[in-house]
User: Fold this.
Amino acid sequence: APAQARSSTPPSIATLGGISDSIDKQKSSKKVLKRRNTKDGLTEEAPRAKRRKPAGADKRLVAPIPLDSCGRPLFPIVLPGCKVHSLGEIVTDRAGFHCQESLYPVGYCSSRIYASVLNANHACIYTCTILDAGTGPRFEIVAEDAPERPFVGSSPDECYVALLRAVNRTCGAEVIVPAARGADFFALPHPTIQNLVQSCPGARKCPNYRWVRFEVSRSATDETERLDSDPYLSYAAFRQLCLQPRLAAIAAASEPSLPGGVTIKQEPMDSV
Assistant:
């Protein structure tokens, strides 16, 4: 009989967790008794040395997501602060499409709300995609209100830093220090997304990628609270922690003052 074709879609993360737990139980059921000689010539069971866990062996908890009847994720995958619209496809024949910390599937697409490069006081939807540039991936961040000005780079950090610099130029000052947070902006390291991407066909053929063990659990930590205070990922946090203090400082500097630090507030003139 012909071999059954493999599915091209990533398996259910719940199924993956079950397989992993089953393997762990089989390994733990095999006990090896070591004996040693005593002074009286008798033998006794020697205490077994505790085996050290290899680096990265601890499981990371991941919250369950809606799946269809075949165990495939329903898109868009809604995460705190962003949405993932496609996981893309793993590229196995070119080393540039993965590194130790991440896989870069071609066709991956996510979106996030952040400060507009036209007016930082306004919010804008940014679409993040990974494209095939030949020897390696090309990362793009496209603003909904300025699609003709995409931010492009050979890494997530390169195009994300370009975005932050554009926001600073719009503000007329450096209101936020450019930082290497591009992967987070794309949502690639998010446990839910990393678990799904490394479950895609071809992920095992990426030799440099460091595999991460995940376990689906309803007790997984909600990252909403942490995100709300991160000005690099949240537009609300950017306005509160970066933009508003800068605007207040500019307003205070523009008001004339008398000796002793007394400020004169400028009132609008009445029309004649």
Notes: Residues 55-248 form a domain with the Double Stranded RNA Binding Domain fold (CATH 3.30.160.360).
